[in-house]
Structure formats: C-alpha cells, structure tokens
Specification:
By secondary structure, the chain is α+β, with helices and mostly antiparallel strands. Helix content is 28%, strand content 19%. A hairpin with a 2-residue loop joins strand 4 and strand 5. The model has no long low-confidence stretch (mean pLDDT 82).
C-alpha cells in the first residue's frame, strides 16, 4: 500500500475531525520516522482516542498521531503470529462489511466522513452514548482515501482487542506507547496497563 496514489474519485480533502488538535491543522510528519506526509506524499493512518469528561461531558483527546504505511508494516512485523491471526479473525468476523458497503453507495457519505463515525463500527453503539472511543482513517498526502472508510471503535472493542493479543504483542504495544505517546498527564493511566488503550495499527 506504500505510496499508492488513490484515484481522485476515491479521496477528499482531509476533514478537520482528523486535524492535529495542537495546531488545528493537518498532521505533517510520521510519528515514528518523521517523514513529511504532505510534501512527500505517502499512504498513512491517523488515529485519535477520546474520552468523555465525566464532569462536563465534553470530549477530550487521550492521544493522537499519524504514522506512514511503511512504519506500520515494520511495526506490525513485531506482532506474534498468534496475535496477527486473532486480530484478522476478529475484524473479519465483527465488522459489518455489508452495512459499510451500503453506506458507501449513499452520496451524502462521500463528503461527510462523520457519516461513518456516528456509531461504533463493530458494536453499533451510537457515539453519543460512548464514554471512550477511537477513530482512525487512511490518507494520502493532503487527502483522506475512501477506498477504506474511516472507523470508530468503542472502549468495549479496545478491551476485546487487548484480550486477544499475546504477551509479546502487548509488550511491543507498551513499548510503542511509552516511546511515542505521552499524552496529557491526567490521562497517563490510559496509556499503560491495566487501563491502556491499544493503538489500532491495521
């Protein structure tokens, strides 16, 4: 998938939902290798993890990052074979592909990625009912690619993913989180065991 240039009909300008919240602008660099994602276009993933503030009900970001496909491929090589098999089986069994395929046929969905992010892609729980969730999408340079629409995963999905990973893979994810994802101090518990939120590098 590295450096694949999607057809113009299958891409849109990056939605603000996937902007870097620190400067309210598109992410510019890969978290791992620091490659410039806009000036040196490549396929990459953006992921954001949110929680609802129990006091005021507002969404707060636990972590966010952009990572190029080359780094994703290298990192996932460290996953155990058991974890990779379990992850593949989990998503193949649980994502409602027919529903997402039907959504892609709805004209309004093409220019409104939040159309796909109104509920958990696996559990179907409306986002307004979720206390924690993660969103991710795929991009090429200054565009979001729609060959694979964006996803939203609830906290329940995160917990299920953690439960099917081997200790080896959990250690690799912990190393990744410790090295690259600092996040706000008040969310430090969400970045380490036992409350850690898994990064979804797929």
């Amino acid at each position: 998938m590295e450096n694949q240039n999607p057809e113009e009909s299958n891409r849109i300008i990056i939605p603000k939902l996937f902007y870097d919240s620190l400067n309210d602008a598109p992410f510019t660099n890969c978290l791992m290798c620091n490659r410039h994602l806009l000036m040196n276009p490549t396929t990459y993933l953006i992921e954001k993890a949110y929680r609802k503030n129990p006091v005021n009900g507002k969404k707060e970001i636990i972590f966010e990052y952009a990572i190029c496909w080359n780094c994703i491929s290298k990192f996932t090589e460290s996953y155990s074979k058991k974890s990779m098999a379990n992850i593949t089986e989990y998503f193949n069994d649980n994502i409602v592909r027919r529903e997402r395929s039907e959504l892609m046929k709805i004209p309004e969905a093409w220019n409104k990625p939040d159309f796909f992010l109104s509920k958990c892609s696996i559990k179907g729980t409306p986002v307004k009912e979720l206390d924690e969730y993660q969103v991710l999408g795929y991009f090429y340079g200054r565009f979001m690619t729609l060959d694979s629409p964006p996803f939203l995963f609830s906290g329940a999905v995160s917990d299920e993913i953690l439960s099917i990973l081997s200790e080896q893979t959990l250690d690799e994810l912990d190393d990744f989180t410790g090295k690259y994802l600092t996040g706000p101090p008040e969310f430090s518990d969400f970045l380490r065991a036992p409350k850690r939120k898994p990064v979804i590098l797929l």
